[in-house]
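Deliverable D4.2, example record:
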Amino acid sequence: MSKKPIIILGMGEIAGVFARGFLRSGYPVYPVTRQMDIQQQAKIIPEPELVLIAVAEKDIQESLQSIPDQWKESLALLQNELLPNDWQQHQLNPTVISVWFEKKKGQDYKVLIPSPAYGSKAKVLLDSLASIDIAARELNNAEELLFELVVKNVYILTTNIAGLKTGGSVSELWSNHQSFARKVASEIILLQKELTGKCFDTEKLIDAMLIAFNGDPNHGCMGRSAPARLQRALMLAEQHHLNMPTLKEIASDVN
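Output generated by the structure prediction step:
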């Protein structure tokens, strides 16, 4: 019996890796590009196995607003800087995976640590990644997912934003600038607490971040999105009346 198709919105590098896993697992894969009428596609494929939204972070809200009703029960998200309110404001309950492998143009994927996932379609994601030897793991509940999303946010924002000043790799950041990195991480964690309305153990988050550091010690701190991430963090801090002296200092130094 043939498997139901999988829809992918946003065919970037990471989506291409998932597509390979889906195909290896026997799922037909249908990409939906910006040029295509998404409502028309939903009429053609009204009951997909999974709808993977793989658009960039900046496009996620627009994508969630435009999801056809037929697809809402099958959604999966993989963006960085995700938090529950991103989908809850649309009354959605998607499967979410925190992706801990990277894929650059012209290179194969590199796994840092196993990618955690939670939701009704988690098994589809995990089995498909396993078919191409990418480690992933299923979480038990929404609380565990929230913690994992915050860990990823702390990792990305701390390394990117601190890296604007220090450059270098994540291991160099921790070995040579630990006090500075902790200041940045503490402000990022304060922001995550405010955005989620939840309390987190700062040391537990930092320990989890260090596990990811050890997964790829030579990982560069500063991606090309770093300046935009800094500006977004400062904008959110201002909206929530949070004082971020370290982030402000970095912004003044790099401008």
